[in-house]
Amino acid sequence: MIDHLARAYPRTLDLGGTPVEIRAMGVGDEAAVLAFARGLPAHDLLFLPRDITHPKVLAAWTREIERGAMTTLLALDGATVVACATIVREPLSWSAHVGELRVVVATSMRGKTLGRVLSEDCFAIAVSMGIEKMTAQMTVDQSGAIAVFESMGYRAEALLRDHVKDHDGVTHDIAILSHDVARVASRLDAYGLAETLEP
User: Fold this and answer.
1) pTM for this one?
2) Mind spelling out the 3-state secondary structure of 93-138?
3) What is the total count of domains within the chain?
């Protein structure tokens, strides 16, 4: 686990009377995350490049966390995962300055700002990692998620038509949004407010 995550997490939120713990994902969490993924509507997973309902994908996910290519925060109600947010970054690529944000929230926890909280936490983590640009993608019919991201400063950058195909063979368009992390960080630094982005 990277040092700033060890300092900042775990922490507990009160979401409408429900205590939710936020902590970093690590080895040993695969079974709980797999149960969470399998409880999600299939359509909610279409924006992810791999199907996280498969154990092999979860095992690879953990390896990527250990390698430093992924940073994942889990939200738990007791021992049950109710949301997760991941920053995906390939440190050795030409786009090492770019991170992709992936956020998934259980149906029962939607409308309680959990997705926003996790997204904001990940934004702060991205700044501390030196990421300069964040992207997020989702199917175009996920209007609620798009609105939340736009309210946080993300803007539409691309539309990939018929980019994913669901289990029924139906294709869906993917919208890609992006956020200029470096610009926000530099503005806050200029005003002496950089510490507000510390996780």
Assistant:
1) 0.87
2) CCCCCEEEEEEEECHHHCCCCHHHHHHHHHHHHHHHHCCCEEEEEE
3) 1
